[in-house]
Amino acid sequence: MRTSASREHDGPAGPPRSGSSASITSPIPSNNGPEIVRAVKAVEARGLVKRYESVTALNGVDLDVETGDFFGLFGPNGAGKTTLLRILTGQLAPSAGRASVLGIDPAKEPLKVKAAIGIVPEVESPPSYLTASEYLYFVGRVREVPRLQDAIDKWIAFFDLRGARGTICRDLSKGTRQKLMLAAAFLHAPSLLFLDEPFINLDPIYQRKVKDFLIEYRDAGGTVFMCSHLLEIAEKLCDRVAVIDGGRVIAEGSVAEVRRDERDLEAAFLRLVGERR
Fold it and tell me: Which residue among 26, 29, 106, 201 has the highest number of C-beta atoms inside a 10 angstrom radius?
């Protein structure tokens, strides 16, 4: 059973969270918010192993993310976070173990998983030869977004990208490219978001806007799986977290359960990782 922890955030509260008794039937069909009924876990991993010749990046990872969770995964550099994300999003096959994302095996049906989720990679990477508007149009056509132009206009307005619409991506600043990658992930209103360092290169104004949006998205029934080194932000957003180190999950639970007697999540993280050094 999920254990919820009390949280507080610095953004306005969204609508009350949906109950957990329903079940997922499909990705969110509209751009008005997550229309979700619940059943399967959003993410499930059992015994995931990934080896690169003599290096073991993941070493028996077990993980559960319930539908409607705002889940945070934290770890030092080289802990296995990005490898795990790549397996869960169908970009990399595990050496052993199994995973399920929205009831889909990402190793067997990677395209189906990619169609159902939104992804923001750690390094922003829109195609350098497309303009910002062309990139969003391309993503929307691939994902068969209904009323595509309306969706594009919505996210261009949200991220204040009007002045960048006709600029090719290679000429955009790092912060603008990050906004564009976030807009592309949100464009088709998926029921599950995988975000790897989503706040990197964003100024405080857009960090706040994205935080507020993600809170509303989660409160309306969406699920967020986020990797971040910004533990102060993560503590205000996440209701469940896990710490990974050396390819193993060393702690998992509500924020309060993982924090235990420490003053904050950062102190708990330093204790957990430091005990293994």
Answer: 106
Give the pLDDT score at 28. 42
Looking at the domain 43-127+191-274, which fold is it?
Answer: Rossmann fold (3.40.50)
Please measure the distance between the N-terminal and C-terminal CA atoms of the chain and give it in whole angstroms: 32
On the question of pLDDT at 195 being above 90, the answer is: yes
Neighbouring C-beta atoms of residue 39, cutoff 10 Å: 13
What's the DSSP call for residue 163?
Answer: G
Q: Does the pLDDT value for residue 63 go beyond 60?
A: yes
* % residues pLDDT > 70 (the chain): 85
User: How high is the pLDDT of residue 22?
Assistant: 34
Asked whether 272 and 244 are in contact (CB, 8 A), the reply is no
Element at 270 (helix H, strand E): helix 265-274
Whether the pLDDT of residue 23 is over 50: the answer is: no
Residue 218 pLDDT class (50, 70, 90 cuts): very high
The total of other beta-carbon atoms located within 10 Å of residue 260's CB is 12
pLDDT (0 to 100) of residue 132? 96
Report how far residue 176's alpha carbon sits from residue 201's, in angstroms, rounded to the nearest whole number: 8
Query: How are strands ordered across the β-sheet holding 117-120?
Result: 117-120, 192-196, 223-227, 70-74, 240-245, 248-254
CA angle, corner 236, sides to 46 and 74, nearest 5?
35
Of the candidates 41, 100, 51, 103, the one whose C-alpha atom is nearest the C-alpha of residue 80 is: 51
Q: Domains of the chain: which residue ranges?
A: 43-127+191-274
- CA–CA separation, 71 vs 25, rounded Å? 21
H helix runs in 109-254, sequence order = 110-116, 132-142, 148-158, 174-186, 204-219, 231-237
Q: Where do the H-state alpha helices sit in 37-147? A: 81-88, 110-116, 132-142
3-state helix, strand, coil in the chain (%, to 5): 35, 20, 45
